[in-house]
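Aggregate trends can hide what the representation actually does to any particular protein. The sequence in question and its structure tokens are set out directly beneath this paragraph.
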Amino acid sequence: MAVVTRTVAEDEAGMRLDRWFKVHYPDLSFGHLQKLVRTGQVRVDGGRVKTSSRVEPGQSVRIPPLGMEEPEAAHAPAKGARGEAGKEGARTASVEPGANPSASPPAKPRASKDPAVRKLEEDRAFIKSITLFEDKDVMVLNKPFGLAVQGGSGTYRHVDGLLEALKDRDGQKPRLVHRIDKDTSGCLLIAKSRLAASVLAKSFRSREARKVYWAVVPGVPKPRQGRISTYLARDEDEEKMRVARHGEDEASHAITYYAVVDQAAQKMSWLSLKPVTGRTHQLRAHLAHIHHPILGDPKYFDIENWELPGGLQNRLHLLARRLVIPHPRGQGVIDVSAPLPQHMAQTFAVLGFDASQYDPILEAPEG
């Protein structure tokens, strides 16, 4: 097998590199992959990586010849595996330099499983790779940019569908407790039982759940800490929300607290946001309303003649950073934080923002 290059697909956003290899090269051992990564033979966009690095759509993964590392793996094929040479999985084996070509050939991979079974396994591995917290009642996922939470017109891969892979023996699958936008990254709460779903939904309705979001916006809002209170209604084209008048049909009250954590030369700001209510597109519509739309927002960014600074990606810079909610069984509090997605981490590096800096939104009121 010669050196090949593969492009990361859209539905692989945020996947750990070791999980990515497991999906594409299931017969490659983790130890062998570690060696290839450590020696720089595996690279992403030409740079060195770790097995724990996360890949993003469009990145190029350099894949060297994948020789079987384990000597004991070089035995005769298992019964029923004959005739598989030349199929996709068989390309993972090659003769190591100095090996005796007359010796028994490397083991041939198992025949491909049923496609439906293989898809369930891949979906299960992907969900596990983005899990930030899990116990018998709850999961908190680090939802990647570009992955929808639920299906819709033209949307075939989404979190709700992926959860089918985690069905229990009774056919019950984990349930979504809330939603975040497709292009928003970060904390997404999943209930693993009916009881947990009911209790957690009640916590959201009673505003016991606390959510903190991070965003990057042009300019510096004044004042640096404030409260945005408006009514929001769906726009006529039904693709975005607009600020509405009190009493207007289908208008809902929306409240957001914001704080400037840091700024770069008065040109860009890192904001921390605490939504008191949970309206559709609330944070995006509210920040556009105060004339500081979120960077990379395709629906609400409306500043004319504004040019994206060099080194920044034109993707929505909105992260569901932190989720704090009482445990459904009364076992304390679930408090989970999500890391910056790759495009926001790049922006933070370019603008000199330190993600460990104190977040003033923590002192904002809860109502």
Observations:
- The mean pLDDT is 84.
